[in-house]
Amino acid sequence: MDSFHFWIDLACVVLPLLVLDAWHLRSTLPPTRTYQSPYVAGTLFVASAIASNFFAFHIGSSVAVNFSIVSLTLNFFLLTPLWSLFWMFVYIVVQIALSVYLMSHGHLSWHSVMHTMHILPKSLAVVMVYISLMMLCSYATKSENPYRRSYWFALALFFYASLDFVIVQREHQLIGFPIQLFVTYVLGFIALWLICVRLVHAVQAVDATKSAARTREQYELIGQLAASMAHEIRNPITVVRGFAQLMAHHPDTSATHRTYLDTIIAELDQADAMIASYLQLAQMGTDEEKSQISVKAVVDNALHLLMPYAQSHAVTLYSECDENAMVFADRDCLLQSAIHLIKNAIESHDRAGIVNVSVQIEGKWVVWRIADDGRGMDAQTLKWLGQPHYTTHSNGTGLGLTFVYKTVHELGGNVEVTSQVDHGTTFLVRIPKANSMATRKATHAAPVQP
């Protein structure tokens, strides 16, 4: 094997990814923003693939190999399918132009064009097989976590590399099926792919750490604000609201003025609700308040409290809860989290609909699902969920989901959200289960009774 060309070819693939990682870590952009920029990532990976073609190395006596396919696969792994197709088209056009140029030795000739057109159909057929595999993998794994997606892409890369080896074997008329050459050829691609994916995952882990640190800082700031403003603001609000109510009920108050006073009272109530949300965030989470509680009991309580609200929105609530799902948590915080999630699910409907709430035990986790068939959310909205003050409701405080995320994270759990516009949203909450010797008894799904 030509070791010099091997290392140069390897550098062509890895160095652009390292540059992208370094830029990403030093930038002030939101997490994963650089990777999701189709202009930056796409340009780097296409340039990497083109450069890799110039430094092909040999394995065995005559089989030429380059790692350009790994760079192109990173496009499909990190970018959207449409952008991946666009950059694949750019790569094909540039490769055809370079082939014509190199075969004509810098002088465009009819012979070089015809020769390129002669070999083009077979090359395009192989490329179409590769694109089909990558697109299938992209769509089939779009809801999977990044680690699982990387292994599916590795499997797709294995199938393509195996097919490519068979084609190379026929072109070079290799005798028999050289298994050692095949293993070297295919595993080389897989090994480099896993190295590149590991670099991506390392950057994503750093992103997660930075995001968690920013979230903690925001929570601390909210707590400080709540402690300093609660009494100073709440007391005057109570006084003003009381006098506004007296004036609204005074017989000399006109209907127009009564409308103005009702607006004042409503806005004061909104301000008081926001202060209450701040206090709720600031006062939650002490170990002394935690105990082993039944998640089913908490969910049933929340559903009972929200039943009239659901009926007013023409929404039917369903529940399916494991009676033995126990967690070690503060009951009031967990109840408030349940109310926030179910209330949001109810409010997501513009028409009659359904909200399904289920609680199950999966291994060491209590898994809690809240699914609705309401408006759903786009990808941009999903990015901001849980951030303080971000809300999609005109009269919301933007602190409800912040409270939920903080509660779950302090319990050692996590929250996952999947949503599709006009098809509904599903919140998946995982909380470590409490130690319990009780056996599992699953209940059957049934409508919640008023």
Give the helix proportion (percent range).
55-70%
User: Biggest sheet, strands in spatial order?
Assistant: 8-9-7-6-4-10
Percentage of β-strand residues? 5-15%
SSE series: HHHEEHHHHHHEHEEHEEHHEEE
Mean pLDDT over the full residue set: 78
Largest sheet: 6 strands, mixed
End-to-end separation in angstroms reads 75 Å
Assembly state of the chains shown = single chain
Total number of β-strand segments?
A: 10
The number of helical segments is 13
Whole-number count of domains:
3
Structural class: alpha+beta
Cα Rg: 30 Å
Overall 3D form = elongated
Q: Low-confidence stretches at least 5 residues in length (pLDDT < 50)?
A: 436-450
Domain Histidine kinase: 228-435
Pfam family, one: HisKA
Transmembrane segments: 6-25, 37-57, 86-104, 119-139, 151-168, 174-195
Keywords: ATP-binding, Kinase, Membrane, Nucleotide-binding, Phosphoprotein, Transferase, Transmembrane, Transmembrane helix, Two-component regulatory system
